[in-house]
């Protein structure tokens, strides 16, 4: 702040400061613009009131800024901040091993394990879907063509005999959809593995299938009710659980990856500093 905007008293403390003068013009302009748009959905009278307020607010704002900004001088009242406390002693945080403030996984399964588990889970899900086609009497091509109906909605409106027949285009589309979905779920599975690092089967075999089935059941009836009516949701849940269990078994057999949690902060930050080596001072330095 320069000398023209500050006055000091004999003690060196500023006696007053020059600040922009308070004005209601900006809020008047904002309210007027709001009424302008509100009048488009109500009446022309609201638009007229908004136009008047907008012009008045804009003119007042310009008058307060140009050619010289309106200011006012505010006295400065010095105040000494007093720090007080009712505590008689300092609280200290215990560093005992049994007192853990935040539980973070030291090791977790890598994302590559989730991808491999997703592929094997996709194989298990395809087998269960084929078994559903056999036990339902519609044939193994029935669930495949139902999956292809996601891209070809006209197939969902066909007869049961037509859906149960072999269709090369539907087989190619269903294979691509199933492979892509398995890879996508595998990647998500690997990314979510730190949430339940000790129980991957619980995450993939129960929690994820139930959440996914509930979401799909609630949305598919609205998106494609014909396709939703043709799906046997009991077998769908069973297939999803089979996918998750197999994926969880594959993931649990993979070696875990150590995280950076037990490392010192300087090591995690990538800062080189003395005293971080585990060897004795001067070892390997030629000193």
Write the layout of secondary structure elements.
Elements: E1 6-8, E2 14-20, H1 25-41, H2 44-65, E3 71-75, E4 107-108, H3 111-136, H4 141-148, H5 160-164, H6 168-192, H7 200-223, H8 225-230, H9 233-252, E5 257-258, H10 265-268
Antiparallel strand pairs: 1-2, 2-3, 4-5
Helix pairs in contact: 1-2, 3-4, 3-6, 3-9, 4-6, 7-9
Describe the structure.
With about 290 residues, the protein is mainly alpha-helical. The protein folds into two domains: about 10-75, Helix Hairpins (Orthogonal Bundle); about 105-260, no CATH class. It is about 55% helix and about 5% strand. The protein is built from ten helices and five strands; from the N terminus they run ββααββαααααααβα. A three-stranded antiparallel sheet has the order 1-2-3, with no helix packed on it. The chain has a two-stranded antiparallel sheet with strand order 4-5. α1 (about 25-40) packs antiparallel against α2 (about 45-65) and α3 packs across α6 (about 170-190).
Strand order of the largest sheet: 1-2-3
Give the radius of gyration.
35 Å
How far apart are the termini? 57 Å
Number of domains: 2
The percent range for helix content is 40-55%
The biggest beta sheet is recorded as: 3 strands, antiparallel
* Beta-strand content estimate: 5-15%
Q: Ranges with pLDDT <50 over ≥5 residues?
A: 274-287
Structural class: mainly alpha
- What oligomeric arrangement do these chains adopt? single chain
Q: What would the average pLDDT be, to the nearest integer?
A: 76
């Amino acid at each position: 702040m320069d000398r023209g905007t500050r006055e000091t008293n004999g003690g060196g403390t500023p006696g007053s400061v020059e600040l922009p003068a308070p004005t209601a013009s900006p809020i008047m302009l904002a309210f007027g613009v709001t009424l302008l748009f509100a009048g488009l959905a109500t009446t022309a009278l609201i638009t007229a009131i908004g136009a008047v307020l907008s012009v008045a607010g804009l003119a007042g704002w310009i008058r307060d800024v140009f050619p010289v900004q309106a200011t006012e001088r505010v006295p400065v009242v010095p105040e000494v901040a007093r720090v007080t406390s009712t505590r008689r002693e300092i609280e200290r945080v215990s560093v005992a091993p049994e007192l853990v403030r935040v539980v973070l996984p030291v090791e977790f399964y890598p994302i590559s394990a989730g991808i491999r588990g997703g592929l094997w889970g996709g194989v298990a899900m395809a087998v269960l879907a084929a078994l559903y086609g056999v036990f339902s009497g519609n044939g193994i091509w029935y669930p495949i063509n139902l999956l292809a109906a996601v891209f070809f909605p006209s197939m969902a409106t066909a007869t049961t005999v037509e859906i149960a027949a072999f269709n090369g285009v539907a087989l190619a589309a269903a294979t691509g959809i199933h492979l892509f979905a398995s890879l996508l779920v595998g990647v998500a599975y690997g990314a979510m593995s730190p949430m339940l690092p000790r129980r991957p089967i619980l995450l993939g075999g129960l929690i994820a299938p139930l959440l996914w089935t509930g979401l799909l059941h609630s949305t598919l009836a609205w998106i494609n009710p014909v396709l939703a009516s043709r799906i046997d949701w009991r077998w769908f849940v069973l297939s999803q659980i089979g996918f998750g269990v197999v994926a969880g078994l594959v993931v649990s057999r993979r070696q875990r990856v150590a995280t950076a949690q037990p490392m010192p902060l300087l090591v995690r930050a990538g800062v080189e500093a003395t005293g971080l080596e585990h060897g004795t001072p001067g070892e390997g330095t030629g000193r």
